[in-house]
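**Backbone geometry record:**
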Amino acid sequence: MRKTIAALGAIFTTALAAVPVHAATNDEQFWVQAIGQGAIAGDLVYFAEVQSRFGTGMEGLDQMLIRPAIGVKLSHRLTVYQGYAYVRTPRSGGGETHEHRSFQQINWSLARVAGGPLSSRTRIEQRWLSNGDDMGWRLRQMLRLAVPLGDKAGGVSALGYVEGFAALNDTDWGARKGFDRLRSFAGLELAMAGKSTVEVGYLNQYVQNRGRADDRDHVLLVTLQLRH
């Protein structure tokens, strides 16, 4: 248990140290997502994600996201993907914004820490929004650790991850080069049939804004991971 706490604590200490100290507005949110993933043929794999985010005190839909990708397993530890994401975001003044993304992703199994897998996900996105003409580039880096809480295989694991976002250029629709946001998650991973799991926990999202107070979102996050 000490190793578990130390490993998860190291992840969150690193995340908190990276967050700028600014005044921030707070919001309580609920995010729910389902992710299907598995083999297509040989080393060809896929994942497909559907996500809904409810914000403003969980009173209304803030965002919907669909994200499929095709990948190739280069080894038992390394997989690369090419994907597409569509994001629909209602606007407070009426109407909505539509975003299209192309992205490239590297999943890397790093090591076992405290008896659980430590993994890395690196994603670079090309983003087009309906309220502008420019293409935005954004880099995302995640570290994730799931540590079993018992000796039984396929039981309950303590789950933690952090993901940092950095915009790589300025755009006419509002992106500004530099630190964009940081997400930190702590919760439980519950085994289901086969390799599938349910993840339930708390996600803290810090978003750096320009010209107004930053955002800090307190999110109840539920993820259904359907693996085959």
